[in-house]
Amino acid sequence: MKLSILDQSPISSGQTAKEALNESLKLAQEGEKLGYTRYWIAEHHDLPGLASSAPEVMLGYIGAQTDRIRIGSGAVLLPHYKPYKIAEVYNMLATLFTGRIDLGIGRAPGGSAEATNALSDHFLQQVWNMPKSVQELLQFLENDFPADHAYAKVSASPLPPVAPEPWLLGTSEKSAKLAAENGMAYAFGQFMSDKDGEAIVKKYNEAFKPRKSGQIPQTILTISALCAETTEKAEEIARSSFLWKIQNEKGESGQGVPSIEEANHFFLNNKELLNKMKKNMIIGNPKEVRQKLFELEQQYEVDEMMIVTITHSPTDRLKSYQLIAEQIL
């Protein structure tokens, strides 16, 4: 099984954004040592508790302090930007870190309506134009506009020896269809979707149209997981992320990922809610998590599993990835 890391660069209560970003670097470095295939960092805007608003900045920082692990965006929110600029940025990263750069793209706003308006004009129109933007981005990455195209003489320089690998990230049938039509690799975000992911991944594989000779469909299933030495400890650690999700939904997440103590206090009289939230996440000891990961891999028939883990303590997060790697990699 191939395993990878999705990092939302969470800020815990009592922690600064700089400390959170440094923990992201440590996670990528540890992931490389453990044998994870790739490390992706997400893009969010003006969301308290999440430190990464510019993945491309962190990728330059991380790339310079790692050697082998693939690094990329999970995802660049394309409707905010012109495809040419994104191609330039990721071509430059691919020039610096040859053969290691992934360009994951998505269409979510990544923040509030106010932040979206501050960041870009006509966002909804750009979401509507997403298929055209994706096509244009791919042509810039491949440097293959037709001779009569307005951009035929424009290159997204510097042109790297190995182009960034484009991925489309999504949580719906629409995203799977767009990826398949453009011959792109596809990452399904099961951890943030209530759709029938198994059917969506299957439709992507069935509809895949290669852009180039030899291309085959590639799939990643992204899940939320937390592993500890015992099931009981894993469940206790996970409560912080559950409470943080509740706080986010209420707009009360300004203090960052809450402590285990705060989470224990909250769920003391909310057992039913706690049990419901546990169903959307893989939680357990190493053997339990291993079994569940292999079951999902076979159920979805994907090429790779990507794990996102939110904890209050960076040590607990690192330990979770270490324990999983020891079982699988």
From TrEMBL:
It comes from Metabacillus arenae. Pfam families: Bac_luciferase. SUPFAM superfamilies: Bacterial luciferase-like. Coiled coil: none annotated. Residues 1-298 form the Luciferase-like domain. To bacterial alkanal monooxygenase alpha and beta chains. GO terms for cellular component: cytosol. This is LLM class flavin-dependent oxidoreductase.
